[in-house]
Amino acid sequence: MNAFISWSGSRELLIAKAVKKWLSAVVPEIESFVSPDLQKGKPWFAELAKELKDADMGFMCLAPPRVASDWQLVEAGAIWKAAGSGGLFPICFHIREKDVPEPLRAFQMTHFNQEDFRRLAKSVTSLCRTPGWTTPRERAFQKSWLQLKKGVDSALRQPDDGVHTTRGFIHAVAGGWWERVWSEQDTTKLSWMWFEPSADGASQTITGHGFNKKGSFASQWETILVSVQAHLPEPILEYYWEGRHTHEPNLLFGGKCSIQFSISANGTIDEGSGEFKDVCMNEARLPTTKLVALQRATPEEIAIMTGKNITMRARRTLADKKLKGWL
């Protein structure tokens, strides 16, 4: 049987090669293909199309920062059409299932852990007209799993040579952030922000809590509309927000914010900068432009800001400490 292993980006290519090696060790009855295996001097698209057409099954390697490119979805459709009684196996490497595009989520996901990969191996073996899950095959699995894990972990530490897809960018910035605000007209100097991907992983929402110079709660806001330009070398996030300040609770404020994020050498996104306009929606006031800088929160800070049994005093103390350290 023939298997097509799909990837997108330099990290996923390394992972795809590791998966191919693992598959050869556990289910040697399958001949797997990764696109760099194309012969030199051949028209690449025609050769690739032939491999897709001949595939009995497909493995989709899905990893940050790309998660899944548009071309991978095309390959998935071609594999599913050609596979017939075979199968399409999306594999999540350090990403959440909800970050995967809807067409692929229709198939049962495989997550990167030993037990789930054992189930994957057994499913693939059942498609081959050979003896099932034998003792020698189990031994081969255990031995090859350690090599696969080492290869994947190494690949995920490597920088990715391409730009982020929208889904990959949304996945990369998910979680807690601190926002430093420069403004002479407002007492809100620091915000705690939470980036939450949408259910389909194609968009996100942002909520924020502002703190003043003493770490006291000063405002609360949320996004209404988010736009992502993830194809740029430095992705840009634009959103419209609405919220209220504690010192003027009867007034509704809103505005547009634009933040440019920096991608580090290893492909992570840990900081950004930009500006937003603060406009009063109830009274005729001049809009205020504020400069902002973003910094990803540490796991310890996230635990304090989101924990269920954490007091507001502890959060105010952390916000005050964070602001003083940022000045």
Structure description:
- This protein has 327 residues and is an alpha/beta fold.
- The protein has two domains: 2-156, 3-Layer(aba) Sandwich (Rossmann fold), CATH 3.40.50; 166-326, Lipocalin, CATH 2.40.128.
- The chain contains nine helices and 13 strands.
- The chain has an eight-stranded antiparallel barrel.
- Helix 1 (10-26) packs antiparallel against helix 6.
- The protein starts with a strand and ends with a helix.
- 37% of the residues are buried.
- The mean pLDDT is 83.
Catalogue the unreliable spans.
none
The fold-level CATH name of the largest domain is Lipocalin
Outline: elongated
Structural class: alpha/beta
* Mean of residue pLDDT values: 83
Secondary-structure element sequence? EHEHEHEHEHHHEEEEEEEEHH
* Largest sheet data: 8 strands, antiparallel, barrel
CATH architecture of the largest domain, by name, is Beta Barrel
Strand runs, count: 13
Q: Tell me the span between the first and last alpha carbons.
A: 62 Å
Measured by DSSP, the beta-strand proportion falls in 25-35%
Strand order of the biggest β-sheet: 6-7-8-9-10-11-12-13
> CATH first level of the largest domain: which class?
Mainly Beta
Q: If you compute it from the alpha carbons, what radius of gyration comes out, rounded to the nearest whole angstrom?
A: 24 Å
Summarize the amount of helix as a percent range: 25-40%
* Count of discrete alpha- or pi-helical segments spanning 4 or more residues: 9
How many structural domains does the protein architecture include?
2
